[in-house]
Automatic annotation (TrEMBL):
The keyword NADP applies. PANTHER family: NAD DEPENDENT EPIMERASE/DEHYDRATASE (PTHR10366), NAD(P)-BINDING ROSSMANN-FOLD SUPERFAMILY PROTEIN (PTHR10366:SF628). Residues 19-140 form the NAD-dependent epimerase/dehydratase domain. It comes from Brassica campestris (Field mustard). This is NAD-dependent epimerase/dehydratase domain-containing protein.
Length: 336
């Protein structure tokens, strides 16, 4: 896919750097960036071997915690998609009650340093004009300060960091490989990015996505469903196009929720048009029925109004997303 910015289609081909290219969203974004001759940053040796020899790619092995690690990768490029996140900390079952020292040293400090390293390299490059930062919908909440359900969840509905530290909100500790903290570094990285933007004058729009799904990540998805009241869905191709849209749209600023629609996990697994015939395949998972048991309660709407108002149009709706997923599972032999 060769994607040229509409505002400069008759001038030059822009070049961009994508961090976290070995991740799910990052690797998909690579396919949408090939026309930009992007440098890619990844820690995985597998991806270095996989992509080596492609003359349209430059691959750098980097470390979020390494001072100046991104300098060479970012230098000379027009923009940066910062997708990589500092999530390398494991918590054994014996450390459920985390101490302040551990959280500060293993979670907060690395998250801040990772953001500063990337954005610092952007400033030093003298060429980077915009950074698109990938955040997570896990930093939002559908409950107000009085723990009442909101009808609409927008970009300003943040979970206060002090509340996460005090109460270990849903998603603070989840089963991901081993037990890992999820929400806190997302919040810290996001807050630090916007602080850096304000202090240093970077142009930094941000896109908030739902957590990536999968068997090992189900605990995170379930935690978000419990806290948000529903799950926000978006096709990975729309995610990539939204990143490109925010990179090129002159009016883009601040944070944007990238979510075509939202649905109860209960409905998604049991009652949806395409999934109702496969109910038994999902019965091993426990679905939280708290919201379902309260008659008349409307699910909070996770709103993408701000992104749509800017002019972004989604290609895939919920029907298309689920249909494609089930067709792929069928082709791979996971469904009858």
């Amino acid at each position: 896919m060769r994607y040229r910015p509409k505002s400069i289609i008759y001038t030059k081909m822009m070049t961009y750097c994508a961090t976290g290219a070995n991740g799910y969203v990052g690797s998909w974004l690579v396919k949408s960036l090939l026309g930009y001759l992007p440098p890619l940053t990844a820690k995985s040796q597998y991806f270095q071997t996989k992509w080596r020899g492609n003359e349209r790619l430059r691959l750098f092995r980097v470390d979020l915690q390494g001072d100046g690690s991104f300098d060479d990768a970012i230098k000379g490029y027009d923009g940066v998609f910062h997708i990589a996140a500092s999530m390398e900390f494991d918590i054994s079952p014996n450390h459920v009650n985390l101490g302040t020292t551990y959280v500060q040293g293993k979670v907060i400090d690395p998250a801040i340093k990772g953001v500063r390293n990337v954005l610092g390299s952007c400033l030093k490059s003298k060429s980077v004009k915009r950074v698109v930062f990938t955040s997570s919908i896990s930093t939002l909440t559908s409950k107000d300060e009085n723990e009442r359900w909101r009808s609409i969840v927008g970009e300003t509905c943040k979970i206060p960091i002090d509340r996460v530290l005090k109460t270990k909100a849903s998603g603070w500790i989840c089963t991901l490989c081993e037990r890992q903290i999820y929400v806190l570094p997302k919040l810290i990285s996001e807050e630090e990015s916007f602080r850096y933007e304000k202090e240093r004058g970077l142009d930094l729009p941000s896109s908030s996505l739902s957590p990536i799904t999968g068997a090992r990540l189900f605990a995170i998805l379930s935690a978000v469903n419990k806290r948000m009241g529903s799950i926000g869905l978006v096709h990975v191709q729309d995610i990539c196009i939204a990143h490109l849209f925010l990179m090129e749209e002159p009016k883009a600023e601040g944070q944007y929720i990238c979510c075509v629609d939202n649905i109860y996990m209960h409905d998604l697994l049991l009652n949806h048009t395409f999934t109702k015939n496969f109910t038994r395949l999902f019965s091993v998972y426990r679905v939280d029925d708290d919201l379902e048991e309260r008659p008349g309660l409307m699910k909070p709407m996770i709103s993408s109004k701000k992104l749509r108002k800017l002019g972004f149009q989604y290609k895939y709706g919920i029907e298309g997303i689920i249909h494609q997923q089930l067709m792929l599972l069928s082709i791979l032999g996971f469904l009858p």
